[in-house]
Amino acid sequence: MTDAPAASTAKARPKTAPEGSTPMMAQYFEIKAVNPGCLLFYRMGDFYELFFEDAEVASRALGIALTKRGKHLGEDIPMCGVPVHAARDYLRKLIAFGHRVAVCEQIEPPAEAKKRGAKSVVRREVVRLVTAGTITEDELLPAGANNFLLALSMLRHTEAEFGAAWADISTGEAHCADLTADELTDELVRIDPAEIIVTEATFEALQETNSLPAPLSERLIVQPAELFESETASGRVGAIWPPDRLDPTHFTRAARTALGALAGYIYDTQRGASVPLAVPDIGSRATMVIDAATRASLELVRTQAGKPEGALLDCLDACLTPSGSRLLAARLTAPSSDVDTVNARLDMLASLAADTGVLDGLRGRLKSVPDLARALSRLALERGGPRDLRVVAGAISGARDLAAPVSGLQMQPEGIARLAANLDEAPAGVADAISDALGEDLPLLPRDGGFVRSGYDERLDTERRLGSESRQIIASLQAEYAELAAVKSLKIKHNNVLGYFVEVPAAHGPKLMEPPLAETFIHRQTMANAMRFSTTKLGDLEARIAGAAAAALAIELEIFAALRARVLAETETLHKLAAALAETDLSAALALIALERDYCRPHVDESLDFAVVGGRHPVVETMLKRAGAGFVANDCNLTTPDEETAGALWLVTGPNMGGKSTFLRQNALIAIMAQMGSFVPATSARLGLVDRVFSRVGASDDIARGHSTFMVEMIETAAILDRATVRSLVVLDEIGRGTATFDGLSIAWACVEALHETTRCRALFATHFHELTALAGRLGRVSNHTMKVRDYRGDVVFLHEVAQGAADRSYGIHVARLAGLPAAVVERAREVLNHLESRADTSGSVGTDLPLFTARRPAPAPEPDRLAEMLEAADPDQMTPRQAIEMLYELKRLSQKAGR
Question: How far apart (Å, rounded) are the C-alpha atoms in residues 15 and 31?
Fold first, then answer.
């Protein structure tokens, strides 16, 4: 939701209750005033109720009825409500619509309020602000993706114009960075935060420059400038990270400001609850840089249609745990640019792939490992329940089961040994304590009770027995009273108003009000068909039952608190364990994919090599395999003799549909996969470290910013030429095709020269400008390559093979015919093409030499010759005499009709 600086979800309400407000409405106005911009979930019994404009907004968003509740200043009060037990479903819908919700709970029982006076209102407080970036419930979160909240500060007078700090409070991850204006959009697209908090000034600056794409700009939330004061940032940071864990003065001013805003916002929205966040670091980020355009072009996380299915992430995600999937996404969107880190990850995959028995066993055990990080976060925020305790116990037990097989791998590189050690350090005592205490059928919340197993606590069992025995006592007492009153239909019932009571049909009621029965039965209520009574014994029994239930719940809550405290005491160890489980899952998944899809281990070093033998596109190959088809592998060698100072540039020509774009993209994806620590789809690969990958493949426009397809193409190309270094990998497709022929050719020509002479990077440049192939004779590191085709009886067969040389001609008309262009249009195109290719003087006027724009219509296609078709299809050897006679008559009829 994009909040204008002074906007809020609903209209502003008075800070104090208007004169004449009821006590409840006075309380509502007071709470609403200190939570502007939020829908107020106001707890009333078993419902969260919304009033005034909040009710109108929520009823439209949730599709629930809008009703009225009393009057305020002479007008009806709009109201709607949602049941407390179903609140999470409604919260999910409201968050999806971009709303923010303040959850206001009753913090005392009604009985306590009555002690202050009959008209006293139950005390209520907002215990939490639910926003897109601060949710922790599994039902509201994507399981395999992070949910980041990001604070963005803007300090124009500094070299780094922006400071960014982001955290996922559902998992405990936290990060911080200084960003220049050029880096801002690319980094925010990579992080993909659910919510971005900014000041009014930053909001306006970003809107004026239109520097953020629509999905991100819609997530901007304006916060007071005081939250972003660098002078007070250290104090706010200390509320989340104590001074012994984090010294804010080690950060730049921009980063410290963002970190302080992030900490302050989390503290405010969580109402001071402890949030177990990791210590963020700042400094040089040893990751491959992938800009927003390249991410979209290569379809790393989502396809260009915006869907996860068909993207590289979806293709590689064989993880069995949500934490493994999140780690895969993190590594894929930020591959490492440190050779040692890359090779350590590859060593782990090689170790697992070499021992398939252990690999299968690990994946079998990983299936039952729950999401430890998110359960731990909910427990720390006092939002967890018995099920989260079971998750912790299950994750610890799962880690202990994984430790031995990991330790037993034949190859023990440093990464595997570290994983085994972290898994083995799982606090088994915590898991045992939780397993001993919890029963089988667990409620969501501790207050629901019934989660501690029988036999665990003697006091609890005593109270439970009292409650169980009370039911037997009530049944016995009912039989006694029925005999005493001589009323067989007498029943003992219960409701929340009267408690336990005796009910008899109305005809028998008067008898119980007369002596001697009146000494036992005390009249309470008369209804149309029945009369209700209480007794001294029932009152005593009710007190005992109520006391037993309350005592039992109090004991269970005490046990829960003790178990929760024991878990939180191991927070640091459990965070390490969660990371180890995620890495084990991811490594096992990538190892399995490498084995099943015949991926090879890439050789990654500090050189400028790029030599791929038998490379394939991972996503296209997977889709073809599902369809029962094979993928044509191709080599790519951008290594040069001058490998320490420059890379090769391939000019790739060939027809549309020949596979140029696939070839370009697959090599960029191979580089990304290698540096994220994955085996790659190739026979072999020797890759020098890539600092940045740039991909400009495919056409797109940006109507919202007023950019045409060609303008977008030029903006993206300019960014590549400005930012690429000798260590970069650049893949470009059809530069210059969006404008006039000579303009486009000139631009493409100049871009090739710039990449070769200035940037000197490894590059693949696909083009339909055949004139560019002349550059191979002028520029030393440029070579021509083409997509092979075969002309078979007038039809083009695309072989999808890359060969040295240049394309002999274009095949656009063939592709147009395959696409279903009308036959007459295709034939006219051939006519025009033949004329243009035969002209000796290219400066002549096409309009003069060839009537391209005349009004003549193409000749209609000839009607089929039915006589010829029948004769061609006839098989005399298979005809019966009757069929032969019928065919003769039909042939004669057709001949007469044709005038033959």
Answer: 9
Whole-prediction pTM: 0.82
User: Do 202 and 349 sit in the same domain of this protein?
Assistant: no
**Gap between the Cα atoms of 672 and 696, Å rounded:** 16
Question: Do β-strands 782-792 and 149-154 pair in parallel, antiparallel, or remain unpaired?
Answer: unpaired
Cα–Cα distance for residue pair 898/900, rounded to 1 Å: 6
Same domain for 83 and 151, yes or no, is no
Q: What is the CATH number of the domain that holds 84?
A: 3.40.1170.10
Pairing assessment for the beta strands 782-792 and 649-653 based on DSSP bridges:
parallel
Q: Clarify whether residues 844 and 875 are in a common domain.
A: no
Do 839 and 793 share a structural domain?
A: no
Render 561-612 in DSSP notation, one character per residue: HHHHHHHHTTHHHHHHHHHHHHHHHHHHHHHHHHHHHT-B--EEESS--EEE
Helix, strand, coil shares of the chain as percentages rounded to 5? 50, 15, 35
* Residues forming beta bridges with residue 505, ordered by sequence position: 530
What is the distance, to the nearest Å, from the Cα of residue 773 to the centroid of all Cα atoms in its chain?
44
Establish if 5 belongs to a structural domain. Answer: no
Domain count, the chain: 7
Amino acid at 254: A
pLDDT value of residue 831:
77
**pLDDT, position 809:** 64
Backbone φ, ψ for residue 191 (5° rounding): -70, -35
Nearest to 140 by CA among 81, 94, 196: 94
- Give the number of C-alpha atoms closer than 13 A to the C-alpha of residue 57, restricted to the C-beta side: 22
Amino acid at 278: A
- The phi and psi torsions of 615 (rounded to 5 degrees) equal -75, 145
Contact 681, 620 (CB under 8 A): no
CA–CA dist 563, 227 (Å, integer): 36
Give me the CATH number covering residue 492: 1.10.1420.10
DSSP E strand stretches across 426-529: 491-495, 499-505, 522-526
Could you tell me if residue 873 is inside a domain?
Answer: yes
3-state SS class at 42: strand
Q: Residue 215 sits in which domain range?
A: 147-284
* Rounded Cα gap, residues 777 and 754, in angstroms: 16
> Could you give the 3-state DSSP secondary structure of residue 150?
strand
CA 52/CA 58 separation, integer angstroms: 10
- Which of 586, 568, 490, 572 is closest to 533 using CA atoms? 490
How many C-beta atoms lie closer than 10 Å to residue 609's C-beta?
20
Residue stretches of the chain with pLDDT short of 70: 1-21, 156-160, 283-285, 643-644, 698-708, 736-741, 792-794, 808-811, 814, 836-837, 839-866, 896-900
In-domain check, residue 2: no
Q: pLDDT, tens digit, for every residue of 705-743?
A: 555 677 878 888 888 999 999 999 999 988 866 665 677
| Whole-number Å distance between alpha carbons of 699 and 736 | 11
- φ, ψ at 720 (rounded to 5°): -65, -50
What is the C-alpha end-to-end distance of the chain, expressed in Å?
77
The helices-and-strands tally (H runs, E runs) of the chain is 31, 26
Amino acid at 850: L
Residues 620 and 768 in one domain: yes
